Structures are given as C-alpha cells and as structure tokens.
Amino acid sequence: MKHKKKGDLPEKICLTCERPFSWRKKWQRNWEQVKYCSERCRRNRKNTESSGSETTFG
Fold first, then answer.
1. pLDDT tens digits, residue range 6-31?
2. Do residues 23 and 11 touch, judged by C-beta distance below 8 A?
3. For the chain, how are helix, strand and coil distributed in percent, rounded to 5?
4. Which of 4, 14, 17, 53 has the most C-beta neighbours closer than 10 Å?
5. Under 8 Å CB-to-CB from 27, ≥6 apart: which residues?
C-alpha cells in the first residue's frame, strides 16, 4: 500500500507563522530544505526575521 495516513506524515514548524505543517508530495525531493508552510509565509519571512532581533537603546 503506497498511501500513508495524514497522521503518519512528517511535520515541521513554519519559521514565519510557527504553525505545524505536514509533508506534501510536491516537496518529496527537497523536504529537508522546506522551511515555510506556504508562499505567503515565504514572502513574509523578512518581516519576522527583522522583528526578532530588535535592540532597545536607552
């Protein structure tokens, strides 16, 4: 049987929205490099990267 149950698929946490997302067939060749759950999160990655390293001057 080739099909896996959805609960048996590997998961990762999106670096932008920090939500879990599951493996998809279109990612089968580069699953190790996948970091974002969607194109929207991939496009917004710079917004979250810059906000995470805020420095307070006082």
1. 778 899 999 999 999 999 999 999 99
2. yes
3. 35, 10, 55
4. 14
5. 34
